[in-house]
């Protein structure tokens, strides 16, 4: 069975060698003796941070659509924000009725749903990108 340096992953020519002939580090008895996995340093691939669903939902709850901006789609988020603010304004000025608050709540729920979809889509896309890198 071939021996590998535990530090750099170099395959040792001499199985009884006390030191690695590549990096010079001492070979311990605990050295892995598998030839399938070689220790490769983690490359400098960009790390995709998962978007936080709770944070996105809180943002969209406070300011409709802003959670979508946080998720990465600025244009869509602002469109939802402006759209909902305008609709809400129209509802409260033109359609003064007892159901207006219910419609406003429905709009907030709508914005939260769009935010939820957006965060899921962005996280799924990033996970796919991550998988393709390795
Ligand atoms: Zn070595």
Task: Name a few traits of the molecule.
4 helices, mainly alpha, single chain, binds zinc ion, rod-shaped, 2 domains, 134 residues
**How much strand?**
under 5%
Query: What is the general shape?
Result: rod-shaped
Secondary structure: helix percent: 40-55%
The N- to C-terminal Cα distance equals 28 Å
Mean pLDDT: 82
List all distinct small molecules, including ions and cofactors, that are bound in this structure: zinc ion
- Outline the low-pLDDT stretches: none
Order of helices and strands: HHHH
Number of strands: 0
Keywords: Membrane, Transmembrane, Transmembrane helix
Mind sketching the topology for me?
Elements (H helix, E strand, L loop, with lengths): L52 H10 L3 H6 L2 H21 L5 H34 L1
Structure description:
The chain is rod-shaped and about 90 Å long. 53% of the residues lie in helices and 0% in strands. The longest helix has 34 residues, at 100-133. With 134 residues, it is mainly alpha-helical. It has 2 domains: 1-41; 53-133, no CATH class. It has 4 helices and no strands. Residues 5, 7-8, 10, 20, 22-23, 25 line the site of zinc ion (ZN).
